[in-house]
Design brief:
Number of helices of chain A: 8
Strand order of the largest sheet of chain A: 11-13-9-8-23-21-16-19-18
Membrane topology (chain B): Peripheral membrane protein
InterPro entries (chain B): AP_beta (IPR026739), AP_complex_bsu_1_2_4 (IPR016342), ARM-like (IPR011989), ARM-type_fold (IPR016024), Armadillo (IPR000225), B-adaptin_app_sub_C (IPR015151), Clathrin/coatomer_adapt-like_N (IPR002553), Clathrin_a/b/g-adaptin_app_Ig (IPR008152)
Helix content of chain B: 40-55%
Largest sheet of chain A: 9 strands, mixed
Number of helices of chain B: 41
Radius of gyration of chain A: 26 Å
GO biological process, one term (chain B): animal organ development
Largest interface: A-B, 109 and 118 residues
Keywords (chain B): Acetylation, Membrane, Protein transport, Transport
Structural class of chain B: alpha+beta
Structural class of chain A: alpha+beta
Distance between the termini of chain A: 48 Å
Shape of chain A: globular
Helix content of chain A: 10-25%
Family (chain B): Belongs to the adaptor complexes large subunit family.
Shape of chain B: globular
Distance between the termini of chain B: 66 Å
Largest sheet of chain B: 5 strands, antiparallel
Number of strands of chain B: 13
Oligomer: heterodimer
Strand content of chain A: 35-45%
Number of strands of chain A: 23
Strand content of chain B: 5-15%
């Protein structure tokens, strides 16, 4: 299991060091600094073995988090734990920075004591942790016996992510369907690979211990119902809109609150949600993706010292919708000496430091088209190596889900308190963003 | 502390008061100041002071001097302060054991506190204080906490048992904590179950033979129930534990799989990977024609793909595992090629791994896409990545025949880019393509020759030279080309030299008239001016061959070579199986068995997949080769590059230069040399440009012959071509071997039929207990290991005047846990002057305590008169187990892994045995010879020994012909056993 956990700043100075196992000595702290943080080469692997000791590291801005072990630990678990630890720290004091870590070192030690025992990760849900590990140490002692046992039963219980007795005057929930659409397209416009990775993020402000059921236009469910004949789902089109009937989901994963065995057998998504914001599910689709933009590049080398680039972008969605924050990044060779750009819409600039022409458009409606052309002057070089022509990449945001996913319902049942599904105010929002959206040229 | 003082200034400028200020004190005398503050009456001030102490501790300052003052702060109501003090205690208790006792009272009191959080905190912290004296006090509170009404306390106590076991295993057993821990598996709280499972699994790991976990269908059922309810981490512990269970039949296996599959949708990648591990393992037991088997295969693909959208570090772990899964079950991901395409922004470690998997998945169906991608990658920036991409193109050509032409033209395009490392890499792979498809793509040679000058890496030079030699008849200026290399012959690396030698000989045989001078030149360079024995050997052989019988030389040197096969970089099947059992763990990331990087007895157990269902296949031949047409398991060549690596490669390839003593001494007749020399010649021929190319140049018969042919290497086809005519011509030193293959056979499987083991050596009895010291009872005895059972042979003599009865025997704790496995069988009373011989079977599961010397055993014998004590020493060979033959690969990895400090050298004098007899003799005592190598008349035997407690001992024994003194180097993770192992060697060899 994890033998020790260290946090370093960018210089390699230790900010936090907690050792859990006897086989990890103080020298491990230095070994990592010397061999990884101060190494001249770029990091070649997130797992490093130095003198029979294995180091796992992740970086958050310029802070290094390293877990150390001498055993054959579950590597995936160690990384998951490190990410989780970042989440917990962020939930407690915001951004992970040197200053924040130093300001909260007592708290961090307290957390580390709680969420790792002898190197074994323990309950690390912030919801639970915040009930008894508090920033100022105010809480902790003047609790009644009931409160104490409530805390412990929550930390160890089946629903470790939610505490009892939550009350809201207004029961409200927000669902965000956030998708990032990824594309790799050949210069000829052939889709080399495309997939959507999506997340359903939920913000719940619900009283008590509500039982929730979430439904979407999952092909498997819809087909099953189709066979069954009647669709007696109430509120079927309550939240969702029109559009594609159903979508094929390649795979999905759920927050630990979702009953996986139930999903496996009935494909229904039921759960008791954590309070506040959390990620309910992640999914991936590869079929019938709506690609919001098409990029058509044209690069011509005119002699040895000039390049002509023309890029057309076409928006491919309903004209009533608006895409935002559009940015097209056209890479230029290292020996570029000057660039002249003309674009029909938005603003374009050559950024020498980034070796790219960056073309920004604030808004663009569907079924439109825009174009940029540029002349790139090159310095003559005797460098034999050809320019690698990195792909043209794109960023954007659209108000729909490129996968076609629709939320069909989210039902809330809380039998003990007197509010019903109808009393809950529900909001749904769809945001599609570009992931790695590249077209080779 | 620089940053600390900076922050201090910031604060002075008015930033808010925060904890970072505690990092600031750097003044002299601060310890003194802190001391005063710690003893202050004001609570707040105390707390501040403790915080400062912890801050100093973090940055590595020694604040142990404050121990008593800090401990004084422990007795407090303030939980935050208490935690800080505990943190300090955990760090320094070990260095101040006596003072740590001061803290015990508070701990014991806290364990009784009303607040469960405080009870848990106390028991958690106490377990982290590694002071022997404290552990005694820990037992009672721990016992209570294990039965606490609050689950939070129980789950903490469960982990504490593992902590205590790490400090004092015996104590945990004696106190019966293990049973309590087992009971917790049935606890009502899932988290308690999960932590108990974690603790038990860890404890079980250090007791390889104990049946601690004792998994049966009932406990499995409990675990599966808890799986649905516990935290993500708990699910990981439980799944990892499930993976070590062996279901009774395929029905049980299926029902477990059904209950584990829902975990594949968990958001935590580690849960997913651990579930995959369980499924991959249990699937092995399902009949392939079962519908469920197919369903399961289909269910595995999507979650594996989803892992690739995780954070890059996890992607890396996932990819390393997918690499294994694809080798074991290629069908799972065969349609998922696209997701492994490299993204421009992937970190380099992700890119390299993806590339590997792309090649593994390449097939006729997707090859066009793959090639287009690879070509794209070959223009990227990162040199390693580009090289690997180029190499991948070559591997595609070899793997998918239909694509070969396209691959070659792609490679030619890349050569045109003139990027130096791309060109070199391309030439190396084109050489391999030639070896797979001879006489097909020779038209490209001209292009290759244009780039001759730019080649500066040995591998590329060797490849180019091989090509020129192989196709000398079609290259007009082949002689000029080769001659140009010859100028700097002595500056070249060995692989280039060897290749150049062979190439020129080939050239000479093809165009004898104009190249006579050249061949003479190279032969004399190789034989007379070189220090390298391999080069000299090869030079002499060619020379003699050419001068004795040019026709035979032609037949040998220009013989048709076996084609190389596609799967050359697969992980060796047994290792792969083991790694599959370790999916998700570090072993699967390193692609090494845990024993290669974990110290001590932990992880030494080799995990195996369950036996395959139905088909009757044994685990010996897993169906890795499914994708390929070849019947034989694919040859797997390890990639170590050092001397030991060479050794291994040589051994793996039967027809190579491992024939004992092929010494180019002038006294021997030409014919003698021919016999031995031919093999090596042929072997080298078939593996071409030497050295590192072994990594990708497959030797298709190696594994095959090891397994199937056993000692009968003579039939190996590659050898038959050249050797067929003269099997009788054996080198003199092989005289005693029964057949051609005999000598080689020794190398591959010494246990297999060649010479029977002589049985382990048993020393004569010596007197251990004198009659005068034991009221007339004399005991003499010795130790023996017979058929895996350790026995203590005793002779009891009654030298007193009265009858002796009621014998019993007991051992004190000892280094290897030796203990009587049964009572001392002296059934009849021992009359005066009578002697009885008894054999007492011993087990090694007794309590362990390190003795001085290590092999000392203290014995107590009781009879109706009194109790007598004596001590004796047993030979360590008693503990050498029968399955101590280490896998060759593992041997290599382990040898390299053990630090050199742990190596001990010994001289064994006056032994007049040749190496085969010696190794046979040693094998009788379970010292196994894994490989043998002969260098300049010196035989080197590589041997392994495994002790009953799982410690491996590796040894290298050098035997110089004619020198009665052997040199023995012993390497072991526990170096203290080395001298005793040496003793055993001496004992065995001298008797």
């Amino acid at each position: 299991m994890i033998g020790g956990l260290f946090i370093y700043n960018h210089k390699g100075e230790v900010l936090i060091s907690r050792v859990y196992r006897d086989d990890i000595g103080r020298n491990a702290v230095d070994a990592f600094r010397v061999n990884v943080i101060h190494a001249r080469q770029q990091v070649r692997s997130p797992v490093t073995n130095i003198a029979r000791t294995s180091f796992f590291h992740v970086k958050r801005s310029n802070i290094w988090l390293a877990a150390v072990t001498k055993q054959n630990v579950n590597a995936a678990m160690v990384f998951e734990f490190l990410y989780k630890m970042c989440d917990v720290m962020t939930a407690y004091f915001g951004k992970i920075s040197e200053e924040n870590i130093k300001n909260n070192f007592v708290l961090i030690y307290e957390l580390l004591d709680e969420i790792l025992d002898f190197g074994y990760p323990q309950n690390s849900e912030t919801g639970a942790l915040k009930t008894f590990i508090t920033q100022q140490g105010i809480k902790g002692q003047p609790q009644t016996k009931e409160e104490q046992s409530q805390i412990t039963s929550q930390v160890t219980g089946q629903i470790g992510w939610r505490r009892e007795g939550i009350k809201y005057r207004r029961n409200e929930l927000f669902l965000d369907v956030l998708e990032s659409v990824n594309l790799l397209m050949s210069p000829q416009g052939q889709v080399l690979s495309a997939h959507v990775s999506g997340r359903v993020v939920m913000k719940s402000y619900l009283s008590g211990m509500p039982e929730c059921k979430f439904g979407m236009n999952d092909k498997i469910v819809i087909d099953k119902q189709g066979k069954g004949g009647t669709t007696d789902e109430p509120g079927k089109s309550e939240l969702g809109g029109s559009g594609k009937q159903s979508i094929a989901i390649d795979d999905c994963t759920f927050h630990q609150c979702v009953r996986l065995s139930k999903f496996d057998s009935e494909r229904s998504i039921s759960f008791i949600p954590p309070d506040g914001e959390y990620e309910l599910m992640r999914y991936r689709t590869t079929k019938d993706i709506i690609l919001p933009f098409r990029v058509i590049p044209l690069v011509r080398e005119v002699g040895r010292t000039k390049l002509e680039v023309k890029v057309v972008i076409k928006s491919n969605f309903k004209p009533s919708l608006l895409a935002q924050k559009i940015e097209v990044r056209i890479p230029t060779p290292l020996n570029t000496s000057g660039v002249q750009v003309i674009c029909m819409k938005g603003k374009a600039k050559y950024k020498a430091s980034e070796n790219a022409i960056v073309w920004k458009i604030k808004r663009m409606a569907g079924m439109k088209e825009s174009q940029i052309s540029a002349e790139i002057e090159l310095l003559p070089t005797n460098d034999k190596k050809k320019w690698a022509r990195p792909p043209i990449s794109m960023n954007f945001e659209v108000p729909f889900a490129p996968s076609g996913l629709k939320v069909r319902y989210l039902k809330v049942f809380e039998s003990k308190l007197n509010y019903s599904d109808h009393d809950v105010i529900k909001w749904v929002r769809y945001i599609g963003r570009s992931g790695i959206y590249e077209t080779r040229c | 502390m620089e940053w600390a003082s900076q922050l201090c200034e910031n604060r002075g400028l008015g930033s808010k008061m925060t904890d970072s200020k505690y990092f600031t004190t750097t003044k002299k005398g601060e310890i003194f100041e802190l001391k005063a503050e710690l003893n202050s009456d004001k609570k707040e001030k105390k707390k501040e002071a403790v915080k400062k102490v912890i801050a100093s501790m973090t940055v590595g300052k020694d604040v142990s001097a404050l121990f008593p003052d800090v401990v004084n702060c422990m007795q407090t109501d303030n939980l935050e302060l208490k935690k800080l003090v505990y943190l300090y205690l955990m760090n320094y208790a070990k260095s101040q054991p006596d003072m740590a006792i001061m803290a015990v009272n508070t701990f014991v009191k806290d364990c009784e506190d009303l607040n469960p959080l405080i009870r848990a905190l106390a028991v958690r912290t106490m377990g982290c204080i590694r002071v022997d004296k404290i552990t005694e006090y820990l037992c009672e509170p721990l016992r209570k906490c294990l039965k606490d009404e609050d689950p939070y306390v129980r789950k903490t106590a469960a982990v504490c048992v593992a902590k205590l076991h790490d400090i004092n295993a015996q104590l945990v057993e004696d106190q019966g904590f293990l049973d309590t821990l087992k009971d917790l598996i049935s606890d009502s709280n899932p988290m308690v179950v999960a932590n108990a499972v974690a603790a038990l699994s860890e404890i079980a790991e250090s007791h390889p033979n104990s049946n601690l976990l004792d998994l049966n269908p009932q406990t499995i059922n409990k675990l599966l129930t808890a799986l649905n309810e516990c935290t993500e981490w708990g699910q990981i512990f439980i799944l990892d534990c499930l993976a070590s269970y062996l279901p009774r039949d395929d029905r049980e296996s299926q029902s477990i799989c059904e209950r584990v599959t829902p975990r594949l949708s968990h958001a935590n990648s580690a849960v997913v990977l651990s579930a995959v591990k369980v499924l991959m393992k249990f699937m092995e037991m399902l009949p392939k024609d079962l519908d469920y088997y197919g369903t399961l295969l289909k269910k595995l693909a999507p979650p594996l793909v989803t892992l690739l959208s995780a954070e890059p570090e996890l992607q890396y772990v996932a990819l390393r595992n997918i690499n294994l899964i694809v080798q074991k079950r290629p069908e799972i991901l065969k349609h998922e090629m696209k997701v492994f395409f490299v993204k421009y922004n992937d970190p380099i470690y992700v890119k390299l791994e993806k590339l590997d998997i792309m090649i593994r998945l390449a097939s006729q169906a997707n090859i066009a896409q793959v090639l287009a991608e690879l070509k794209e990658y070959a223009t990227e920036v990162d040199v390693d990545f580009v090289r690997k991409a180029v190499r991948a193109i070559g591997r595609c050509a070899i793997k998918v025949e239909q694509s070969a032409e396209r691959c070659v033209s792609t490679l030619l395009d890349l050569i045109q880019t003139k990027v130096n490392y791309v060109v070199q890499e391309a030439i190396v792979v084109i050489k391999d393509i030639f070896r797979k498809y001879p006489n097909k793509y020779e038209s490209v040679i001209a292009t290759l020759c244009e780039n001759l000058d730019s080649l500066d890496e040995p591998e590329a030079r060797a490849a180019m030279i091989w090509i020129v030699g192989e196709y000398a008849e079609r290259i007009d200026n082949a002689d000029e080309l080769l001659e140009s290399f010859l100028e700097g012959f002595h500056d070249e690396s060995t692989q280039v030299q060897l290749q150049l030698l062979t190439a020129i000989v080939k050239l000479f045989l093809k165009k004898p008239t104009e190249t006579q001078e050249l061949v003479q030149q190279v032969l004399s360079l190789a034989t007379q001016d070189s220090d390298n024995p391999d080069l000299r050997d090869r030079g002499y052989i060619y020379w003699r061959l050419l001068s004795t019988d040019p026709v035979a030389a032609k037949e040998v040197v220009l013989a048709e070579k076996p084609l190389i096969s596609e799967e050359t970089d697969l992980i060796e099947p047994t290792l792969l199986e083991e790694l599959i059992c370790h999916i998700g763990t570090l072993a699967s990331v390193y692609h090494k068995p845990p024993s290669a990087f974990v110290e001590g007895s932990r992880g030494v157990q080799h995990k195996r997949l369950p036996p395959r269902a139905g088909s009757g296949e044994s685990t010996e031949s897993p169906d890795v080769g499914q994708s390929g047409p070849s019947e034989a398991p694919p040859a797997v060549i390890p990639s170590q590059g050092d001397l030991l690596g060479d050794l291994l490669n040589l051994d793996l390839a039967p027809p190579t230069a491992t024939v004992p003593s092929v010494q180019p001494s002038m006294q021997m007749g030409a014919m003698d040399l021919l016999g031995g020399g031919l093999d090596s010649l042929m072997g080298d021929e078939s593996d071409t440009p030497g050295g590192r190319t072994e990594v990708q140049s497959p030797q298709p018969y190696s594994d095959y012959s090891e397994r199937e042919l056993g000692g009968d290497i003579g039939g190996s086809p590659s050898m038959g071509a050249g050797l067929g005519a003269a099997p009788a011509a054996m080198p003199a030193s092989l005289g005693s071997a029964p057949a051609v293959g005999g000598g080689l056979g020794d190398l591959f499987d010494l246990g297999g039929g060649v010479g029977m083991p002589t049985g382990s050596y048993v020393a004569p009895k010596t007197v251990w207990l004198l009659a005068m010291k034991a009221k007339g009872l004399e005991i003499s005895g010795t130790f023996a290991r017979r058929g895996g059972i350790i026995q203590m042979d005793l002779s009891l003599t009654n030298k007193a005047m009265s009858v002796m009865t009621d014998f019993a025997i007991q051992f004190n704790r000892n280094s290897f846990g030796l203990a009587p496995a049964g009572p001392l069988q002296v059934l009849t009373p021992l009359s005066p002057n009578q002697t009885i011989d008894v054999s007492l079977p011993l087990s090694t599961s007794g309590p362990v305590m390190k003795m001085e010397p290590l092999n000392n055993l203290q014995v107590a014998v009781k009879n109706n008169i009194d109790v007598f004590y004596f001590s004796c020493q047993y030979p360590l060979s008693l503990l050498f187990v029968e399955d101590g033959k280490m896998d060759r690969q593992v041997f290599l990895a382990t040898w390299k892994d053990i630090p050199n400090d742990n190596e001990a050298q010994f001289q064994i004098k006056d032994i007049h045995l040749n190496s085969d007899v010696a190794s046979n003799k040693l094998q009788g005592s379970n010292i196994f010879t894994i490989a043998k190598r002969t260098v300049e008349g010196q035989d080197m035997l590589y041997q392994s020994v495994k002790l009953t407690n799982g410690i491996w001992v590796l040894a290298e024994m050098r035997i110089q012909t004619g020198n009665p003194n052997y040199t023995l180097s012993i390497k072991c993770r526990a170096p203290e056993v080395c001298p005793f192992v040496y003793q055993c060697y001496e004992l065995v060899l001298k008797n």
